[in-house]
Amino acid sequence: MEKSQERAILGAFAQFLKDVVEAGCRFVGSIVQTRLPGGQSVQVIDVEPAAMDRKAAARYIGVGVTKFDELRRDGEFAPVQIGNSPMYLREDLDRYLAQTRRQSKNR
After folding, report:
1. pLDDT at residue 21 in the model
2. Where along the chain do its domains lie?
3. CB 82 within 8 A of CB 89
4. Which contiguous run of DSSP H or E holds residue 103?
5. Contact status, residue 63 vs residue 47, Cβ threshold 8 Å
6. How confident is the prediction along the chain (107 residues), in pLDDT tens digits per residue?
């Protein structure tokens, strides 16, 4: 494959991912398939973990670790112990985000 072809494919793929994010789509355990210019088929497999560590959980809800720790201390969500590591369940974080959205709409 030529470099210009490769750049075109990567550019189209990057635009596809940008469009997915801007549309607010999330694919939990899904396969997204699309065709790139030239007819090449691409599959994106996006499997979000059911549990994540502190840094990943903070990134997931869109805050820094300091704010995340503050929310945890305030009882917004609690870690579960998996082995020796405290982990945060995606469903608990999603619940927190949904609750926050409802509260924002009521203001």
Report:
1. 62
2. 3-46, 51-105
3. no
4. helix 90-105
5. no
6. 677 777 777 777 777 766 766 665 554 555 566 666 777 776 666 667 789 999 999 999 999 999 999 999 999 999 999 889 999 999 999 999 999 888 877 76
For 47-89, strand residue ranges (E) read 51-52, 80-82, 85-89
Helix (H, G, I), strand (E, B), or coil: what is residue 80? strand
Q: From residue 66, how far is each of 35, 55, 69, 72, 94 by CA, in Å?
A: 41, 10, 5, 10, 19
User: If you search the block for the tokens 């969500």, which residue do you land on?
Assistant: 77
Paired residues of 30 in beta bridges:
46
65, 102 contact by CB (below 8 A): no
Helices 90-105 & 54-61 angle (0-180, nearest 10): 30
Query: CA–CA separation, 98 vs 91, rounded Å?
Result: 10
DSSP letter (8 states) at residue 84 = T
